[in-house]
Amino acid sequence: xxxxxxxxxxxxxxxxxxxxxxxxxxxxxxxxxxxxxxxxxxxxxxxxxxxxxxxxxxxxxxxxxxxxxxxxxxxxxxxxxxxxxxxxxxxxxxxxxxxxxxxxxxxxxxxxxxxxxxxxxxxxxxxxxxxxxxxxxxxxxxxxxxxxxxxxxxxxxxxxxxxxxxxxxxxxxxxxxxxxxxxxxxxxxxxxxxxxxxxxxxxxxxxxxxxxxxxxxxxxxxxxxxxxxxxxxxxxxxxxxxxxxxxxxxxxxxxxxxxxxxxxxxxxxxxxxxxxxxxxxxxxxxxxxxxxxxxxxxxxxxxxxxxxxxxxxxxxxxxxxxxxxxxxxxxxxxxxxxxxxxxxxxxx
Length: 348
Known about the structure:
This protein is 41% helix and 18% strand.
């Protein structure tokens, strides 16, 4: 099984990236900072409904700080859901604050409850890591999904990505009556391409969700990453291909069962064409993002050297060998893709 070589380094948000975030309204003053949430005084292990350790801890604050923290969290949720309109947050309450010390960004997960109907929602507050932010932004621009997040100084706030966690989907739902094995296999092929082209790594089943949508005749599936910590950080090329993670083997087997090589290549080509079109739609914004990204190493030098050699060998493209940052490797991968699909008509 592919695993990260060690816990990832946190890279600060540098001025070029911060200027980009400010221009596209991703940076704004937040009511609650990450370091404020670190001031908890007690914590208890959070168990799931089967009594198993979730690796999250529910945290508790001093009584004199609790009211201020909860007010700030409700206001933060209001920014995520309604921008400047905050009147609706009066009927919301913070039901629980959880902390995970094992994640690279050591996130806090906040559960918000609507007092009128007990509806629940979540959002996350994390350390602001520039490589994670690049991953979020590339997902927003180049995938079929949209991501809502904000940055303020060293704090990153993210919306909750809805779906069934990949490991739970594989364990409990993969063989459900009515599940469409071919559609699942097709989506996994496309997901595999999206990750590899933009170098998003560590897509073990616990790091993505499966969004299941009933259609008028059948069921549609979409695999969405929810962990962007390993955006272009590892040196191994295979680390960016979800197909090589042992936990994803059931999805790989679906593909072997239902698709021949020609069909698989067709779906790969479809996904690459769609990414190329999205790049053309967002050409100015993507160019600004890449201009910031190529200036940052985003990984230790040894990992950069290893990945550029493996990509040069895989693509038979010696230009990779002249690149010195992970951002440059991502940009060249995207530029190569765009060049291959210049014949794809641009929608009016």
